[in-house]
Amino acid sequence: MTSYENSLNILEVLFAKDYQFALATSNDNIPSVRFVDTFYDNGAFYIVSYAKSQKVQEIEKSNKISMCNKLYRFTGIAHNIGHPLLEKNYGIRCHGFFMKVIERELNVS
User: Fold this and answer.
1) Can you tell me the distance from the alpha carbon of 107 to that of 11, in angstroms, rounded to the nearest whole number?
2) 40 lies in a domain?
3) Burial class of 101 by CB neighbour count within 10 A (0 to 12, 13 to 18, 19+)
4) How many beta carbons lie within 10 A of that of residue 8, not counting itself?
5) CATH code, domain carrying 60
6) Which top-rank group of organisms is this from (predicted)?
7) For residue 40, which of 15, 56, 76, 86 is within the disulfide window of CB 3.0 to 4.6 Å?
């Protein structure tokens, strides 16, 4: 196993669950930080948020973000992939994290 493959496995073990990070975005070079629930899958972190939230608006303007919690820090590019219930997002919504969020959003038990 290469170091890269080993690193991906470690990310999977640590973050393929409901995990909170401080998400940093910016608007006109003014940083904005808030805690968000994330889920890591196949090389990407997923966050569910209201489409008109401040963080989504800031990501639409500037997609460079940072996330941190404890000793872990990541920087990257964010993409709005749309609502988890969209057909194109079927693969990611099968995870327990997304079902929990969707159920909570739809008030389904």
Assistant:
1) 31
2) yes
3) buried
4) 15
5) 2.30.110.10
6) Bacteria
7) 15
